[in-house]
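Hello again,

I reread your note about wanting to compare the complex against the isolated chains. To keep things tidy I'm splitting this into two emails, and this first one only covers the full assembly. Below are the input lines as submitted, including protein chains and any nucleic acid or small-molecule components. They are followed by the predicted structure of everything together. The single-chain runs will come separately.
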Amino acid sequence: GAVVSQHPSWVICKSGTSVKIECRSLDFQATTMFWYRQFPKQSLMLMATSNEGSKATYEQGVEKDKFLINHASLTLSTLTVTSAHPEDSSFYICSAVPWGGADNYGYTFGSGTRLTVV
Amino acid sequence: KNEVEQSPQNLTAQEGEFITINCSYSVGISALHWLQQHPGGGIVSLFMLSSGKKKHGRLIATINIQEKHSSLHITASHPRDSAVYICAVRGSSGDKLTFGTGTRLAVRP
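Full-complex prediction:
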């Protein structure tokens, strides 16, 4: 089945530094990648949608300069949290839609990254 | 009011019990998804439904489009079924999902 590899699975960083999270589709081409943030015991909150080769579309209230998303190829999308602060500590997870669309193939989720900013 | 409502929010069951989780939505959809989130955070897609009923092992998912309602059933529940179950709907256009708040299931041995 389709697999999305997300790493790191957890990261601790110092306040003010940047952290990059990668999502890679291993056996399919992902035309669309969604990036979510999840607070404890809450549901997923969509941050942005990225399509290969074009700029990401950010949801209202999400700072595009803080959360940089790059979808440089059909198998790799990255989220960089720039100048991280403790309030950015959260669980981040991606999901990919294969070429052929969600109608036919649904969504494949990464395993998530737990970010702690100290 | 959320566009996707799930009930119950929390559920504790004894091993072997039959479990039902409900999902109601208020928007037009092209598909409804049931997802399972394990304690470590990873999410697995269980079902994608646009009509009728689907079965996979001990899991059964049904949807009633007219009533805007879906149910996820687990037969002969097992402690390994303990997870958060999330209902998500995809609208009539685009690929964005709208998520329910999840149902936290604990199955006791």
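For quick reference: Chain A has a mean pLDDT of 93.

B.
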